[in-house]
Amino acid sequence: MIIEQNIWGVTPEGEAIIIYTMKNALGSEVQLSNIGAGVVSVKYADRNGNIDDVVLGYKEPMSYFGDSAASGKTIGRVANRIAYGMMTIEGVEYRLEVNSAPNHLHGGTKGFANCLWESRVETNRVVFSLVSEDGDQGYPHEVTVEAIYDFDDENNLEITYLAKSDGTTPVNLTSHIYWNLAGEASGSVLDHELKLNASRVLESDERQIPTGRLLPMKGSAQDFTDWNRLGKDIGSIFNHIDLFRGHDHFFVVDGWQKNILGEVGELRCEKTGRLIKVLSSQPGCTVYTGNWLAGGCPTTKSGGRYADYAGVAIACQTHPNAVNNPDFPSILLHEGELYCNKIVFQLRNY
After folding, report:
1. Which residues contact 115 (CB under 8 A, 6 or more apart)?
2. Residue 199: closest CA among 215, 186, 212
């Protein structure tokens, strides 16, 4: 494994934006940035040996600050939505920024995805670290976080998230990579096929908050229990798919066990033969088909603009609004505890 480190740019405050390039023996490479501890590029071969970049991203480093898509970045303190920006922890009510009306989304406009992280190379891995102070974006207590990236000679990209807090606070971290297995500038992913190790999907209300009900996927417009095309039922009224302009829903992994790495699902592209297997220690994933990419993406790596559905995110995490629903797995991190979750993307062909 070769890891190169270069200055990619400088912020208006004079801080260095670093880009790391991890290269393996297969000729594949992963590029990372300290903006949001994010993935800016993943290049690997298709079934015919052609190497393409299969991750959405931008031409200029400063474009990664404040992008509504949160492209490739680490989301926190809490991924997904908190209803109405309100939560009560140990009897104390907290009001958070409402940045996706009427909800709080992805930790706020200055959440982890829009922070410049400290970074370093440790032998064959890249480690990003961040200190989120008490009161940051309205959240209680100080949290220290690490995002650790490993990439091996078998094309396995592993992300490990670690966090500690000096008091009780919610933590729900995920990676917001958008995949297009035909190449980042190739157009829509609605022809990609998805299969999930999940037989249930959370029912969402019209504001994209879970009702608490679990809907069976089998036979529905969100039946990914076997291979199904992402665009097949994109206009269905089932679970408000039409209202959300596509899939933006949380799927509950079957047989999930806390702290155990398990199978989440697979994404494939018939045109190129690329396939990604996803594993995680999280209880589920949000599948987002890039329904609003056209409205919030800066100039892309290829010099254009992404249209809606140009990429799909499979964001492994705990249930949306879990801090307000005692029936969901808890996202509360207590003093003295270690938050540790992994996501693995296995880059393959078929």
Report:
1. 35, 36, 130
2. 215
